[in-house]
Amino acid sequence: MTTALRRLRNYIDGEFRDAADGRTTEVVNPATGEAYATAPLSAAADVDAAMAAAEAAFPAWRDLIPAERQKVLLKIADRFEERAEELIAAESENCGKPIALVRSEEIPPMVDQIRFFAGAARMLEGRSAGEYMDGFTSIIRREPVGVCAQVAPWNYPMMMAVWKFAPALAAGNTVVIKPSDTTPASTVLIADIIGSVLDELGHSRGVFNVICGDRETGRLMVEHKVPAMASITGSVRAGMQVAESASKDLKRVHLELGGKAPVVVFEDTDIAKAVEDISVAGYFNAGQDCTAATRVLVQDSIHDEFVAALAKAAAETKTGAVDDEDVLYGPLNNANQLKQVKGFIERLPAHAKIEAGGEQVGEKGYFFAPTVVSGLKQEDEIVQQEVFGPVITVQSFSDEKQAVEWANGVEYALASSVWTKDHARAMRMSKSLDFGCVWINTHIPLVAEMPHGGFKKSGYGKDLSAYGFDDYTRIKHVMTSLDG
Ligand SMILES: NCCCC=O
């Protein structure tokens, strides 16, 4: 007996709609490998409709006093809490994520982040107004950018949607957001939540629109004439395409494109604590995290002890069913990602050694074992490229200079960490590490008040924080004559 697939829809101007031409894609639960829903495969007509709704809603939303936008965001945050179990269920089915961890690790920060941006809505800053030429006063207006086209990734579909819509709406922009084609369910649910709040508080539902679809849909959004800004979290390849498309009409671009975080462990570190924290930061969310503690560089004097402890921690780490509370992570997000991760392992050079894991787990779904690979060289593919799977690589370094050179010797530059009891060394390393974030004796925590974003091929623009908020605004100089 076949069960009917649930039908997800776009959310445009306050209405749930199928794609105009009726095309759909199947949405697969990665824990089972089975389709559970269909989602629209949106094309130009759908993108036009969503952009038109966001464009029509923009003037009224822009012109609200910030306190009114704050009220909307605070209510959205409350509603996220009230409907948390629905969000958790959707996200867990989207991604195969352990239910208990979505509840404890995703819902509270998301709610906090929305509340942070609700506050930011009332903190639109400009530098001092004043007389910079005799007889004239200059002031700064900080304004929203306009309609924002936003493309979210599949690793944290709900949270990345929050990182995009919350600062954009707080600053007075309107939004058209596209979830990944593998994970649309939680974003469609978010549309229901935001739409109902907008309605209750008397605002146009066109302020927030969701378009489901694939890369081509994303391209149509970015190239569309309406949005003033394109924001994407995704691969370097996707980011470069967005930057190129956006350059045709000089749209503002905001890119978060992944990482290859070095985890630099010096010989004076507390090995047991470092191993415990690094294995959680490397395997959480199946390593599908752009800041994952994926690339360990360990000082040669403690290398063997450290690798043995890391391999033991990997063997004790559990992946499995969404309702198993002992599980640290679920499956890889999709069949293609499983193939990618397997490919990295299959192509390992002869000098590499698999210390733990290295294979798929179970026959159903896309689970992969917690893996440790040692004996690697700086130029190896698995050291240079983002694996986005539960794989921690280990290299052995001799001194601080070599550690810095290897840590910085990749094209990504999002996050990093240094592990040492020597404060001066930690401070020297935090200056030398060429990454958007340096953690000291920890790895992966983030807070709404601090920026998340990288350098080099990790992209540009910040998420979270007042810096992220500013990215969704533009500044205008107004100069007035004092002669009347
Ligand atoms: N830990 C959150 C990282 C966001 C991007 O993957």
Automatic annotation (TrEMBL):
Residues annotated as the enzyme's active site: 256
InterPro entries for the chain: Ald_DH/histidinol_DH, Ald_DH_C, Ald_DH_CS_CYS, Ald_DH_CS_GLU, Ald_DH_N, Aldehyde_DH_dom, Aminobutyraldehyde_DH
GO MF, any single term: oxidoreductase activity, acting on the aldehyde or oxo group of donors, NAD or NADP as acceptor
The Aldehyde dehydrogenase domain, residue ranges: 19-478
Any Pfam family hit: Aldedh
Alphabetical UniProt keywords: NAD, Oxidoreductase
CDD domains xref list: ALDH_ABALDH-YdcW (cd07092)
Family to which the UniProt record says this protein belongs: Belongs to the aldehyde dehydrogenase family.
NCBIfam families according to UniProt: PRK13473.1
Protein name according to UniProt: Gamma-aminobutyraldehyde dehydrogenase
Species of provenance: Streptomyces piniterrae
Source species taxonomy: Bacteria, Bacillati, Actinomycetota, Actinomycetes, Kitasatosporales
